[in-house]
Every structure is written in structure tokens, then in C-alpha cells.
Amino acid sequence: MGELFRSEEMTLAQLFLQSEAAYCCVSELGEIGMVQFRDLNPDVNVFQRKFVNEVRRCEEMDRKLRFVEKEIKKADMPIVDTGENPEVPVPRDMIDLEATFEKLENELKEINTNQEALKKNFLELTELKHILRRTQQFFDEMEDPTLLEESSTLLDPNEVNRVAPLRLGFVAGVIGRERIPTFERMLWRVCRGNVFLRQADIEDSLEDPSSGDQVHKSVFIIFFQGDQLKNRVKKICEGFRATLYPCPETPQERKEMLAGVNARIDDLQMVLNQTEDHRQRVLQAAAKAVRVWFIKVRKMKAIYHTLNLCNIDVTQKCLIAEVWCPVSDLDSIQFALRRGTEKSGSTVPSILNRMQTKQTPPTYNKTNKLTSGFQNIVDAYGIGSYREINPAPYTIITFPFLFAVMFGDLGHGVLMTCAALYLVLRESRLIAQKNDNEMFSMVFAGRYIILMMGLFSIYTGIIYNDCFSKSLNVFGSGWSVRPMFNVRVGGNWTFETLEGNKILQLDPAVDGVFKGPYPIGIDPIWNIATNKLTFLNSFKMKMSIILGVIHMLFGITLSLFNHLYFQKPLNIYLGFIPEIVFMASLFGYLVLLIFYKWLLYDVRLSRDAPSLLIAFINMFLFNYSDPTVKPLYTGQQALQTLLVLIALACVPCMLIVKTLVLRRQYLWRKNLGTQNFGGIRVGNGPTDDEAEIIQHDQLSQHSEDEPEFNFADVAVHQAIHTIEYCLGCISNTASYLRLWALSLAHAQLSEVLWTMVMHIGLSTRSVAGFFLLSIVFCFFAVLTVAILLIMEGLSAFLHALRLHWVEFQNKFYLGQGYKFLPFTFEGILDGKFED
């Protein structure tokens, strides 16, 4: 149970592993995840370590698997994940795995190469088919008599007779549809209008064999005269990446060629289908095993990385490792080493030897599903120092409670609880789905925090008697209008007065008007009172001060357990005691005044009650001569003066006395309590012979463990700590007023949302009002979730986080440690820990 409140006790251990058993032993340690390996070769280059070749082989296998995975995803195939956690393959199985992956990679590459070549050939034949069809249409159009007449009218008759007998050359090809306008302009300018271009779009999109994208192309045919224009046209086509194809000149040859192209396309399509079927079968077989292969390869790679952290003895038969591990798990580690030795077939057992060290161990806090979220909140501020009090167990209660004080609403708390319960009850199924959405993953990781916040919000909502800005009158109000009405019947109040006036004041001084307090929470009559905000302001402000002072006093009290555990009596007498006395003398006294005023002043005396704020300010100013401020009790001046003097006396104890005592302790350790005056030893320290031996040992130990004492540095540090604490008591107490501010803000936002939105739907009582109410309720629900649950909830969460980090944890929590990062396959496979 003690490990819940403090980090685990850690030890540095030395492992002696036989070379043939080292791989299996590290594998077993990775499965249990209880040891953190230290790098014993920090000065050795990573490429000069013993197992660098094995690491490279694992990386090469990982690369091949990523290639296979990419091909599977490209084919839109699901990767089968059965949740299986395969054992680490033995080193001799690496050759078989390498051969399997090599064969699979080569087969896929060969299939891809053949398929790309076939697709390229298929594309060329398809383009040629469209060219033969379109060019035939072009020639048919050119042979149309009407077109010939139109073209002859554009030329001089003499020129027509001279040009007609000439035969024009032509080239045909395909080009990207988006390049046609630029291509046409370039032909016109370079050839000076001496070429004739016809183009037509290919209706069907074509597949690019290299990228697999669908492209749109157009068929073109260019007529020209002479070899010079022919060369120019070809160069332009080459520049625009147009593909030229041979096209026969006679219709018969074009028809025969088209028939041959269609036959080749049919044959090629059949071969492509068979190739794709074969590729699908290979990828389907790989998709069933690729996840298991990934796990095996990454486990092997992690083991060899870890073995590279070890030292090798001179005989090359033993590996030496140093690990941090919890003392409570030493037996489990021994069993894991024994299993690894037996699995490897070695006859020499592995040895685990605990070492004595002066290095600070890592901090390790065991967590479960409930406590892990709260531990992450604490660790985000800073990893706790070794064996320091862990704030997480107390945060489990205080964090959702302070959140609920700001968020207190019964209806909103129920909605938040239902959402968290859904995540908690279906956590196994949601974990199996492995959602990669970052926002959902963050919310899912904090599902138990949200559940606790929702439950506490329900509690505070009952205390505030607030449900979607409305009060619940379950037990009947503690106020009655009848006695007040009987008193007023003979005066000003009548039945018409009650019906015609919305604002009437109930006087609690009248007997029978106030029957008694509401059984639990705030009386529902305050929901319709005009001075509701004034009453809640006073109540929630005082409540915030009370909760804040109690929370801080609890944090100071926890520091006592740290001082007792680390055996630092000086920090108790000149640290803890002055701090808690200072806090209790000033702000603890303020809390007592609040309770005293609540108990002492009833309805008839409340008008004469003095202001606590003015009384508290006068306490610091020693101002008791103001006749308008009446004392709360007899002897108030003497008691308050004494408390202020006690608080002021605590300041030099922390500021000066502690620094001087630290200096005296250092000098005593240095001189060992002896001083010589004229050859006579004065003091109660050891003798000269003993002092020489002890001084040598202690000073050597002191030089290793502690830095040299510097009085100026210690004095400045202590001054900063004292000033920060004394001023922090004031600022931290004021910081807890955010509980009051956020609570009022949330209640007012909820009331405004009800008044401005929901009130519209409830204002009409006709049949159409039902449909209006349905529409308005949808808006109300969306705004409630978006603003009051998400935005206000996030705001209250951040403020509660700040109260724990700054106001609570700084009283006892240093957070100067470093986290225990065990070698665990689970963390490596989940991506939590990098190699």
C-alpha cells in the first residue's frame, strides 16, 4: 500500500549473462517490462558495437515489411490484426525470416515490373486504336466534297490549280488534353501557319502505368509539306511530351492494322487480369501475416539494441549489463532470467547482483487504468523526486472535486457521467478498434478522470440545487409566504398585490416565514429571488476561501512526511513548523472567522454584522480605532495582534535562522567539532587521531555527494523560498477565488442559454409550438454540449489543473526526478518508447 503514496523503491543491479543465453534472457525481460538498461558504452560509436550487423539486418527486414505493407494498402486490402503477441524468434530463425521477406519482396517487385510493362504496352495499343479510329474520321471528313469546296473558296483559283496535285505529309499521336491550347499556339508560331492540325478528345480516361493515375488525352493529326516542317513538328511534339504513332496512309491498311491492334488488346487484357489475380493472392497471403512479422522483427531489433548497451568481458563468453529495477520485482526478474536461460539451453545460470550506488534512482509509480490518468496529470508538472510523496492518490479526489465546484450542475454532470460511462463500459472494444484520431485518443485516455469529474459535478449540482439553471423543489421550500401575507393583509398586501407584482420581499424576521433550512443544498426559492446573485456571491466566495486554505494546509502537512522520511529534522523545525504556523495564524484564522460569523449572526443580528474583509485588513494594519467597525467578539484586538506577531516571527526563522544553522552544520562537519587554542582541544568532538581518520572519510564522501557549501548561494536561495512562500500564501489564497468566479460564470451562462433559447420554445402553447419547441430544443442541446460541456468543461479543467500544480503541489512536491523507462516490448510496439 505504501507504494501508492510514494514511488517504488529502486535498486541498481548488475546482470551477468552468458553469450548464448543473453538473447533469450533479454527477450524475457522485455516481456515483463521491469528493468531499465543503462548504456555501459557511452563513448563507443553506434557503428562499432558488437551487434550492429544484427541491428542492420533487422532494419533491412523492417524496410521490406514496410514495402509489403505499402503494397497491401495500395491494393485497399485490410491488414489482419488478430491481437496475437508472438514470441521472439530465436537468432537462428532470422535467416528463415530474411529468406521469406526477400522472396516476397522480389516476387512483388517482379509482379509490379511485369504489370507496369504490360500496362504500358496496353496503353500504347489503346492510344494507337484511338488514333486509327480518329484519323480515319479525319480523312473521311477531308474527302467530303462540301469541305473541299469550302477550302477552295478561301484560295485564289490559280493557286488551287497549282497546289492540288501536291501530297501532304502527316504525323499522328496523342497528347495530354490540358496541353492542347499551348501546343496549337506553338505549332502556329514556329511553323508560321504552314501546318494543319486536327484534334479530338478521347472520351475514356487512360491509366498511367507508372503512377496509376487516370489521365485524359486527345488524338491529333498534323498535316505539313516538306521535310523541314516535318522535323519542326516532331521536335515540338517531343517538347510537349506527345507520343507519335505510325499511321498508314491508305484506308485499307488502317483497317487491317486496327483489327490487329484490337486482337492484341484482347490478349493483353487477359494477361493483365491473370497478373492482377496473382498479385492479389500474394498480397492476401501477406496481409494475414504481416502484422505478426512486424512484431517479431521489432522485438528482435529491440533486443539487439539492448545488447549493444552491455559490456563484454575479456573472455567474450559473458555479457555484463547494469539495470535499474524495483526491489519488489526482483523475484519476477529472477524467474524471467531463469526462463531465458532454460529456453536458450544454456547450463550456466544468469546472475543478478544488487549494487550499492550513490546515483539517484529513477522514479517509478505503479498505476492501473484508474490511477494512470491522474498520475499523468502530476507527471506533466514534473517527474517526482525519488521516494518523494506522490500527489496522485490525493489528486484522484481533490482534482475532480475542485473541477466540480466550478462546474457544479446536476444536468451537465449527468451528461458528462453518461459520456464517460460509455467509454469505460466499451473500453475493450474501443481499444481493439485502434482509433488514430488524436482528439479521441486523448479523451479516451482520460475516461476515468471525466467519469470522476461527472460524478462530483452531480454532487455539487445537488448542493447548488442547480440543474440546467433551474432548481429542483424536492423537499419543499423552507420559506412560507402565508405568515407574511397574514401580517400584510391588514396593511398593503392583498390578493391583487400578489397577482400583479413579481417582486415581493420575504422578511425572515417575521415568525413563520422561515420554517427551517432546506434538507440538502440551497433552498429552491433562491432561484426566483431578485437578490439571488448577491446571496450566491457571498456564499461561493467564502466557500472558495475555505476550500483553498484547507487544500493548502493539507499540502503543507504532506511536506512533513517528506521531511520525516528523508530524516531532515532541520526542515521540520525551521521549515514545516514556521510555514504551517504562518498559514494557520493568518488564513486559518480567516476561515474560523467565516464559520464564527455564520454561527453567531442570525436574521435579527445580520444587519449589524461587521465586514470580514475590513476586519482582516485592519488586522494587518493594527487599526482598531474605527468606530464604524464593531468587534466580532471580546478580546479580538489582543488575539489578532498576537497572531500577526507570531506570523511575523516565523519569517526570520525561515529566512535567517535556517541559513545560519546550515552554515554551522557545515563548519562542524568540516572541523568535526574541535578547535585548538594554544594546543588545547576545545569541544566535544573526537580526538585528534580519530578526527584525522573521520575527517578524511567524511570530507571525501562530502566531496562526492554534496557540492561545496556557499553561504551566499544558500542565503539567496532561502530568501527566495521564504519570500515566495509568504507572498504565495496571499496570492494562492486569492487564486482559489477562481472557484467562485468560474462557478458563477457557469451558472450565469446556463441561465442565459435557457432564457434566450429554451424560453422561446416554451412561450407558445399551440400545436405549432410543439414543432417550434422541437427545433429550439435541438439548438439548446447543441449549444449546451458545445459551450457548457466542452468549452466550460475545458476551462474548469485547466483552472483545476493550475490549482493543483501551483497552489497545492508547490507546498511539498519538488518534481526534480527522472522517469523510469523500462525495456518493454509493449511500449515499443505501441510507439510509446523510441529505440
**Arithmetic mean of pLDDT:** 85
Strand content: 5-15%
N- and C-termini, Cα separation: 33 Å
Number of strands: 13
Helix content: 55-70%
Radius of gyration: 43 Å
Number of helices: 27
Shape: extended
Uncertain stretches: 147-157, 159-165, 673-705
User: Which structural class best describes the helix and strand composition?
Assistant: alpha+beta
Major beta sheet summary:
5 strands, antiparallel
Give an account of the 3D structure:
With 835 residues, this protein is α+β, with helices and mostly antiparallel strands. Among the domains are: 131-262, 2-Layer Sandwich (Alpha-Beta Plaits); 568-671 and 706-736, no CATH class. Helix content is 62%, strand content 7%. The chain contains 27 helices and 13 strands. A hairpin with a 2-residue loop joins strand 12 (675-677) and strand 13 (680-682). Helix 2 crosses helix 10. It is extended, with a radius of gyration of 43 Å. The two termini are 33 Å apart.
